[in-house]
Amino acid sequence: MKIKTILVSQPAPTDEKSPYHELAKKYALKIDFRPFIKVEAVPAQDFRQERINILDHTAIVLTSRNAVDHFFRMCKELRLTVPETMKYFCVSESVAYYVQKYIVYRKRKVFIGKQTFGDLMDVIKKHKEEKFLVPGSDIQKGEIPTLLDKANVTYTNAVFYRTVASDLSDIKDLKYDMLVFFSPGGIESLKKNFPKFKQNGVFIAAFGPTTAKAVRDGGLRLDLEAPLPEAPSMTGAMELFIKREAKKK
Q: From CA 87, how far away is CA 123, in angstroms rounded?
């Protein structure tokens, strides 16, 4: 088999039944995990300079757990009391469930998309009278402002946290058969931490079109772009790729 060692640029899964563990066991792989990027909070002092008043808005658009954590962190640092009338538009059920860490779910109005931002837009369009705040990172998916603009809703984009490269100086080299990435930030981190990296025979896998584009724009060869029609998860796509490579002579 050509692929024996894999580095996944994310934290190690805590679930013993993780598909990564199953994959490693099934194909006798060595899979290491290391986050290539980390999130840094934007201090309240810096946020104030943007002159964005959170309480001028009537609804919050939450696209990730990071967005949830940093929205409520910022409110706390600014000593703001979020009104009971505030509405929350969450991109998925898992994000909506996570909001319960900060609010009493029954007393607030929480709206949920199926999974993608496009799905959530169907819900947002029914509430055009709201003034939306979109807390996020300095690296935002292009479709978010595009879809909001197209729907003609009133919204404010606000940077509550930044995505920066992790310090990977303890990794001497990248002697792996495959590297797996999930965001453009991961590719930037690769370039920053390993400026002399030569891909040669190393396979690179990317999840999502923006990550795939970052691989190509970075002058690297993209070997696997997930999701695939027959494999919606990264691990599923990896398994198909590993099996295909194993058949080659």
A: 12
Query: Are residues 241 and 192 located together in one domain of the fold?
Result: yes
What is 134-201 written as a DSSP string? EEEESS--THHHHHHHHTT-EEEEEEEEEEEE---TT------SEEEE-SHHHHHHHHHH-TT---TT
Whether residue 85 sits in one domain with residue 13: no
Q: Is 215 exposed, middle or buried (0-12, 13-18, 19+ CB in 10 A)?
A: buried
Query: Is there a single domain that holds both residue 125 and residue 195?
Result: no
188 and 89 together in one domain: no
Domain count, the chain: 2
pLDDT of residue 107: 59
Q: How buried is 147 (Cβ within 10 angstroms: 0-12 exposed, 13-18 middle, 19+ buried)?
A: middle
**Which token pair is 15?**
């679930």
Whole-model pTM: value is 0.76
- In 57-126 the beta strands, taken as DSSP E runs, fall at 59-62, 87-90, 109-112
Reported as a single tens digit per residue, the pLDDT across 200-216 is 999 999 998 889 999 99
185: Cβ–Cβ under 8 A, 6 or more apart, which residues? 36, 37, 139, 163, 164, 165
User: What is the rounded CA–CA span in Å between residue 73 and residue 79?
Assistant: 10
Q: Say what percent of the chain tops pLDDT 90.
A: 80
What digits encode the pLDDT tens for the residues 77-115? Answer: 999 999 989 999 999 888 999 999 999 876 569 999 887
For residue 209, the domain's CATH number is 3.40.50.10090
Give me the domain span that covers residue 224: 5-36+168-247
